[in-house]
Task: inverse folding
């Protein structure tokens, strides 16, 4: 019971992170990194209560505690304050280097107290590193939260802040080192920078591509993208400054450098899936056995009308009774008008029912249409219904689809030669 | 005629007198003066009636309007009132079809519309000797509406699968149906009491109709837009700004161009179409205002950011309002004598392509005797047959608050 009421700092941080307002989230991230924050606070506050002597003097302490100071012959060095341990609170300080046996003491004048610590470059670098680490940790925590909640704008802002922090770190480092006063260091840093830029050129390019894609809203989490060159087909699960993670439909995961989405072609199908386009393309081809192409007799037309009642809605009597019309032509017209009036087929941008080039296997008829149901299960359902309707009605027009003979046909003597030619007419 | 009324400039005109008969013995002649007078009285009464708070129906409301009109006395006036209700009572909570695609079939496996929250008009007529359907289908009353909308004739249903948002129930006596969720409000006495002795000037304020007409002339600016996401308001920003800051500030011109209106009936019908369209602006404006007020009353945590300002809420409900506007347009066209394409016309239309198809559709639309319009179909079908015309509905809806506020319609 006692443990239940006890809330750790981590619990409190999670509470704040779960709130909507940004200031609560930032505070929650800070609490998550409370140890790191504590170190920063300590580093900032500690120097207010101590002072540092620089340079260190070698001195002797006699029995009367009188100090004789001798300036060290060795080169002066500046000592980081956290390496120094104080053990005397009187005006006279004995300074002992940690881990060594060196001791020194001196009278400290008020003018020596205070600001020296802040001029110490090691101290400055340390503060900078601590600050950047803390800020970066907060940004990454917030970014992960926004990735989960799919808040695209905030994710982009987190990445912008991370980049700014990196830039701040580099600039801060250069200012601390005081590059202007040290031309040799400046030259070394310049060469190092060029080499690093060359090594990480793809990463740098990726950052630029990231902003191009985000600001033009070309890529968001949950977008369905296809990158044909790399055979990637799935939903975007994560977008960072350098990498895009895609959850493929076969449940594998692909990570691609974001610069690929700029240099290579990729398709974004999100708008189609959301129903914000005319529909989803359906393109199906049926291969007809041309041996069954002929002109329908009046009996066959009567049979057709009885078996396919809606044929009179889509074909006029003139077309049906026309002796010059082949069953192939009538079927194409029927399917075309049937699709034009189908409640799930969009007439825009185009609806085409056409014969393709003759092949050895037969004459292909292509249906090219857009189904208004764009989500995958609904689309496949409607597409299958259309195919089933084609298969249902094809026989009543006296037509057959082509299919290669199977082993069953061969072994059961379904293929045989006759003296008389086949009539190729459907018998009721 | 421009007048000043309570410090506001209004534009009073007499547009109905230019409409001529399309069929029958008196084809080509204007309608009789008492018919025209009844139209004005009916319009005035119905618009006044719908200013009532209870007719402020928000897009998410689950209710419908059910009115009863007794036509046994003052038959012509009452039928004109039925006509005007059919022209005006189109609310943004009408649901034509459900978005889910698996559940949209009837028992035969055919596509079926849901059609929730239809406006129901109960017509009380005791006289069984009169062919009430033929009488109501006259040019001066409901025209072709009864041929396509769902109606019940003394208990027998017709056109059950209709997608139109008006339903007419013809009964021989008015009785409160205990099973009905929304009981009919009998307005017959109200009409008689208030308007029997009124000598109407046959003049109406056409300012909103004029602005609606100017909106349509912005076709060039809202043309050449990608068809995807028709209801995305950002697509119309340029045209909206042009409308608000240019078109609405142009010098005022009357709706009726006397010379053109006397020569061409299609110009008259176009002008009247703008008038009927603008008659619904007040209803929609009050409905959305009610929705906004309800949203603002909620605790901050429950408020939806997409509905919190006047501009955003109109964009949020753009699709629902567009559906309602298209439903209104269908009823208006049917009443004005248009009809959907029949089987042969449709077959011929589908056999043409490109400009030939457009020309054929235009030819059918401008026929004097039996004009047929390809867009007389459900909103769902419009999306797949002629999506290029949907932008007008979407854009008009966004322009409504600007027009209403400009004209400062009072409650």
Result:
């Amino acid at each position: 019971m006692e443990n239940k009421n006890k809330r750790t700092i981590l619990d409190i941080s999670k509470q704040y992170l779960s709130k909507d307002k940004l200031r609560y989230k930032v505070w929650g991230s800070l609490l998550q990194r409370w140890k790191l924050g504590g170190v920063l606070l300590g580093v900032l506050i500690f120097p207010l209560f101590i002072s540092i002597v620089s340079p260190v003097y070698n001195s002797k302490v006699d029995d009367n505690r009188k100090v004789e100071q001798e300036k060290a012959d060795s080169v002066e060095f500046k000592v980081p304050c956290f390496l120094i341990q104080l053990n005397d609170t009187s005006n006279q300080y004995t300074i002992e280097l940690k881990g060594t046996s060196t001791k020194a003491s001196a009278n400290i004048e008020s003018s020596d107290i205070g600001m020296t610590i802040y001029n110490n470059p090691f101290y400055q670098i340390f503060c900078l590193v601590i600050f950047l680490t803390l800020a970066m940790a907060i940004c990454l925590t917030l970014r992960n939260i926004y990735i989960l909640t799919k808040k695209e704008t905030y994710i982009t802002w987190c990445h912008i802040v991370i980049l700014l922090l990196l830039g701040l770190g580099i600039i801060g480092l250069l200012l601390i080192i005081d590059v202007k006063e040290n031309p040799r260091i400046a030259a070394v840093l310049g060469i190092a920078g060029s080499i690093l830029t060359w090594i990480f050129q793809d990463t740098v390019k990726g950052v630029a591509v990231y902003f191009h894609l985000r600001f033009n809203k070309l890529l968001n989490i949950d977008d369905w993208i296809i990158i044909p060159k790399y055979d990637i087909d799935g939903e975007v699960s994560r977008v960072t400054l350098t990498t895009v993670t895609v959850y493929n439909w076969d449940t594998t995961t692909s990570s691609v450098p974001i610069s690929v989405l700029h240099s290579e072609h990729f398709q974004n199908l999100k708008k189609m899936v959301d129903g914000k386009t005319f529909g989803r393309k359906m393109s199906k081809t049926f291969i007809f056995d041309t041996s069954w192409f002929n002109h329908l007799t009046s009996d066959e037309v009567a049979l057709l009308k009885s078996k396919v009642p809606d044929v009179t809605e889509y074909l006029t009597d003139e077309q049906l009774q026309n002796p010059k019309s082949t069953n192939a032509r009538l079927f194409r017209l029927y399917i075309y008008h049937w699709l034009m009036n189908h409640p799930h087929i969009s007439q825009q941008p185009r609806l085409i029912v056409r014969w393709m080039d003759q092949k050895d296997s037969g004459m292909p008829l292509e249906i090219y249409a857009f189904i208004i149901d764009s989500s995958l299960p609904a689309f496949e359902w409607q597409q299958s219904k259309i195919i089933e309707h084609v298969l249902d009605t094809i026989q009543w027009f006296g037509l057959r689809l082509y299919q290669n003979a199977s082993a069953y046909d061969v072994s059961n003597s379904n293929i045989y030669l006759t003296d008389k030619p086949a009539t190729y007419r459907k018998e009721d | 005629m421009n007048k000043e009324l309570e410090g506001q400039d209004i534009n009073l005109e007499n547009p109905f007198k230019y409409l001529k008969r399309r069929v029958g013995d008196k084809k080509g002649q204007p309608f009789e003066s008492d018919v025209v007078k009844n139209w004005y009285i009916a319009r005035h009464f119905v618009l006044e009636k719908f200013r009532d708070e209870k007719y402020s129906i928000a897009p998410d409301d689950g209710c419908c309007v059910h009115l009863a009109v007794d036509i046994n006395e003052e038959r012509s006036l009452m039928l004109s009132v039925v006509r005007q209700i059919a022209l005006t009572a189109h609310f943004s909570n009408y649901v034509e079809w459900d978005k889910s695609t698996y559940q949209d079939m009837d028992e035969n496996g055919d596509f079926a519309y849901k059609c929730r929250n239809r406006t129901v008009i109960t017509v009380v007529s005791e006289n069984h000797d009169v062919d009430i359907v033929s009488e109501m289908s006259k040019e001066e009353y409901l025209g072709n509406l009864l041929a396509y909308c769902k109606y019940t004739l003394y208990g027998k249903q017709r056109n059950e699968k209709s997608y139109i948002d008006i339903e007419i129930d013809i009964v021989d006596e008015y009785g409160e149906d205990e099973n009905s969720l929304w009981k009919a409000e009998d307005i017959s006495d109200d009409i008689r009491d208030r308007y029997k002795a009124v000598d109407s000037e046959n003049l109406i304020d056409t300012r909103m109709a004029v602005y609606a007409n100017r909106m349509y002339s912005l076709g060039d600016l809202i043309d050449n837009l990608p068809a995807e996401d028709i209801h995305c308001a950002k697509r119309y920003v340029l045209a909206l700004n042009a409308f608000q800051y240019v078109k609405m500030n142009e010098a005022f011109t009357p709706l009726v161009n006397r010379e053109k209106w006397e020569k061409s009936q299609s110009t008259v019908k176009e002008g009247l179409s703008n008038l009927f369209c603008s008659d619904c602006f007040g209803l929609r404006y009050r409905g959305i205002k009610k929705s906004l007020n309800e949203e603002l009353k909620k605790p901050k945590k429950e408020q939806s950011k997409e509905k919190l300002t006047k501009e955003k809420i109109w964009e949020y409900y753009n699709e629902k309002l567009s559906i309602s506007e298209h439903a209104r347009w269908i009823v208006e066209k049917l009443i004005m004598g248009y009809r959907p394409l029949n089987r042969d016309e449709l077959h011929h239309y589908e056999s043409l392509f490109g400009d030939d198809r457009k020309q054929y559709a235009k030819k059918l639309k401008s026929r004097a005797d039996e004009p047929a319009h390809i867009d007389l179909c459900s909103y769902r079908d419009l999306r797949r047959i002629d999506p290029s015309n949907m932008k007008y509905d979407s854009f008009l809806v966004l322009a409504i608050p600007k027009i209403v506020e400009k004209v400062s319609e009072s409650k």
Q: What stands out?
A: Residues 44 and 204 of chain B are 9 Å apart (CA to CA). The two ends of chain B are 24 Å apart (CA to CA). The first helix of chain B runs from residue 33 to 49. Confidence is low (pLDDT under 50) at residues 1-8 of chain B.
